[in-house]
Amino acid sequence: MISPMHRTLAPCATALVSLAMILMNAAGASPLDTAREKAPTGAKEDVFYDGFDGGKLDPGKWMIARRQWGGKGKNGGVVAENVSTRDGHVVLEAHGDQYQGPVKGVEKRGKDFVEIDEGRRVGASIVTKDRFASGRYEVRARIPRHLGACSAFWTFYYDEVAPKPGPSESKPANARRKPKIINHEIDIELPGRPGRTPQGVGYDWMLFITWTGVGAKEDTSDRIQLPNALNDGEFHTYRFDWHTGGNGIAPSVVFFLDGKELRTVTTNVPSIAGHFWIGIWFPKGSTGEPDYDTETLDVDWARITPFHEPDDQFVEEAKFDNGFAPVDQWPAALRP
């Protein structure tokens, strides 16, 4: 959940500036024109799959996020204490406005995320350790019954690149200019709503968003009303097929629910590989009020089948080392 619907509706990460990207940009190269690693030619063995059997979370596959986004003071972020396993599922807890338990949230102070004395509106997120580009992304999950939190499945790449100085621009003046934000992201979010304003919020709506930046016309937001609400206590399979394109393949993202195609998006299609996030968090005002103690997003399995298309881009990423819980700070029951 990092890139929210103008940074309030989808997850929005705060990233560190990549020194290598800045140096290349200062030399006159666009960050997307710099040398990049191409993904290896794929075979079935490079399919990513986790059925979450055995009651542990594999640190070779996953990280647990410990960070906050969506605006300072708007929520308590996501923390490792809210991740567990049960009956072969990963359970991501979301603590609502009635929560009075011991788990506390976090907020960003400087470059670090520190614990706060507030446990309400605190969620959870797991993130793939590796990055992936074009491919089929699938999650079988059971969403909460009540409104109030955002359940989301998304890819995410983010970086901030220093602007190039103009011909007569001094270095101090250039330093005052805003960096170029590169935000390549694909989101599925629930609950949804008929329009951008938070009216008519319900689990009979799904949101689909693609991003290539955070500026005007750099995101495409779509939505669909479903024949039945998805907070039915059942598991459903959420999927998107991401095509970066090349060799006659047009860039697109095709969204599915339980194997049925719902939407195809052909604008603002990302091309840069990112980590895949599964999470539940608390936007301010766009998903209803969390009038409960605890709800859960239960994940049965996750699978990523890479397409390895020609226009996949693997570029140096911003580092988020301070936004994830070290394995020795995971709940003891999750550790291998």
Short structural description:
The protein has 336 residues and is mainly beta.
Structural features, described:
Helices cover 4% and strands 34% of the residues. It has 336 residues and is mainly beta. The chain has one domain: Jelly Rolls, CATH 2.60.120. 43% of the residues are buried.
List the helices and strands and how they pair.
Elements lengths: L18 H8 L21 E3 L11 E3 L18 E4 L2 E7 L10 E4 L2 E4 L8 E5 L6 E8 L7 E12 L9 H6 L3 E11 L14 E7 L7 E7 L10 E8 L8 E6 L2 E6 L9 E7 L12 E13 L30
Antiparallel strand pairs: 1-17, 2-7, 3-4, 4-17, 5-6, 7-16, 8-13, 8-17, 9-10, 9-16, 10-11, 11-12, 13-14, 14-15
Instruction: State the CATH class.
Output: Mainly Beta
What percent of residues adopt helix (DSSP H or I)?
under 10%
- Record field, number of beta strands: 17
Q: Rg, please?
A: 19 Å
Any idea of the CATH topology? Answer: Jelly Rolls
Supply the number of structural domains.
1
Overall shape: it is globular
CATH architecture: Sandwich
Could you spell the SSE succession in H and E letters?
HEEEEEEEEEHEEEEEEEE
Structure annotation, total helices: 2
Q: How does the major sheet shape up? A: 8 strands, antiparallel
In terms of structural class, how would the helical and strand content be classed? mainly beta
Low-confidence stretches: 1-44
Provide key terms for this protein.
336 residues, mainly beta, Jelly Rolls, eight-stranded antiparallel β-sheet, seven-stranded antiparallel β-sheet
